[in-house]
Design goal:
Elements lengths: L10 H32 L1 H8 L2 H22 L3 H7 L2 H21 L11 H12 L7 H16 L3 H14 L3 H9 L1 H19 L7 H27 L2 H6 L1 H48 L1
Length: 295
């Protein structure tokens, strides 16, 4: 009774195939978004790529120069002389070291060498201003404040991150194992996706062409969910609350989320296209068979 008239699959097999297709769509989207999350947290290459972003470095450079102007007026040193010592190449290198520190902490569970700004050239300028009696504060205080300003601009929430990282590395001895386990989750999700695809093929082995409908639906649904995740990243990227809280940190997240959203968007679009192509071929074949049966 529950045999279909056009093939050898039963109603139970088709229902189970739809369940497998649903699980395939779910785990496909979870695997992709999980991979994005792991990349965001632990990918050294991604963070180094963000650290070298020309737009972010230019923004940092302008912010540092503006702060130097303000501090020069407050402390009495030459703003132009100090600004000359701050170059975009040095900012890029500082960003690289900050990215290495962060990813090293997350991938190895170890707080490595804390990135510091080379203050020698600025020291000489401040000491000269002190000798000329133009400083309104102690030279060491001024040097420390300028250095802290530059480092916090390049490495937002620097002290909080370093304190948290050192405590995490000290108190959580098994952090490396936990991180490695988290990094394996996308692979586990991919294996589950393959298992779901295999179940669909097994259930529809008597009428294998029907599997195109299930695969197409799963791929298209997974792609749509992935595109929704892409939109979520773009929304977070343009969140004004973070900009108000910390402009430097907002700039880094803007660049990071932009690159992740681009990858999500491309993968999601490819999945939707692949899914609809499979559904198109299935529909075309079905219509062709229907037309032949009527003639």
């Amino acid at each position: 009774m529950n045999r279909i008239t056009t093939g050898g699959t039963t109603k139970t097999e088709r229902v189970c195939a739809w369940i497998a297709a649903f699980l395939l769509a779910v785990f496909l989207s979870v695997t992709i978004l999980g991979t994005v999350a792991v990349q965001m947290i632990t990918s050294a290459g991604l963070h180094l790529n963000v650290a070298a972003d020309a737009g972010m470095i230019e923004k940092q450079y302008r912010e540092i120069c503006e702060n130097i102007d303000v501090m020069a007026g407050e402390y009495g040193f030459s703003a132009e002389n100090v600004k000359v010592t701050v170059t975009r190449e040095e900012l890029k290198e500082m960003n690289r070291k900050s990215a290495e520190f962060w990813t090293g902490l997350l991938t190895k569970g170890e707080a490595g060498t804390i990135p510091r700004w080379n203050i020698v050239a600025i020291q000489n300028i401040i000491y000269t201003a002190a000798e000329e009696k133009t400083l309104t504060e102690d030279a060491q205080t001024v040097i420390g404040d300028v250095r802290e300003m530059i480092e916090n601009t390049v490495f937002p929430l620097r002290e909080t991150t370093i304190t948290f990282g050192s405590k995490m590395a000290k108190d959580m001895a098994d952090i490396r194992g936990i991180i490695q386990s988290v990094r394996q989750l996308p692979l586990l999700g991919a294996l589950v996706c393959l298992a779901c695809a295999g179940v669909i093929a097994l259930l529809l082995a008597k009428e294998i062409f029907q599997s195109l409908k299930y695969y197409g639906t799963a791929l298209a649904a997974g792609g749509i969910v992935t595109l929704a995740g892409c939109i979520g990243l773009l929304v977070l990227r343009s969140d004004g609350m973070l900009q108000e809280a910390n402009a430097g940190l907002a700039g880094e997240f803007h660049a990071l989320f932009g690159k992740l959203a681009l990858g999500c968007g491309i993968v999601g679009t490819l999945l939707v296209i692949a899914g609809y192509l499979l559904l198109y071929f299935f529909s075309r074949k079905k219509n062709s068979e229907t037309a032949e049966s009527e003639t």
